[in-house]
Amino acid sequence: MQTIDIHEAKINLSRLIETAVRGESFIIAKVGKPLVKVSRLDGPNSSQVKRLGFMAGQITVPDDFDQMGHAEIEGLFEGKH
User: In order of start, what are the domains of the chain with their CATH numbers?
Assistant: First the structure.
């Protein structure tokens, strides 16, 4: 695995990112001391990505949804429960 000095990494960042994207990991070092390992991230494939609305049509929301539990909550504030 290639070791790159931090100064060189700053100068050649775009090229080094392309290297990592191709699957070639490397180490960035400062004064010869390894600091970080840079490698490609593999994201989830499209079947693993969760989407909003995936349960559309499978759930119903009552018309009084915004008032559900209103009396109980009001009672708690008034000390009735």
Answer: 2-38 (3.40.1620.10)
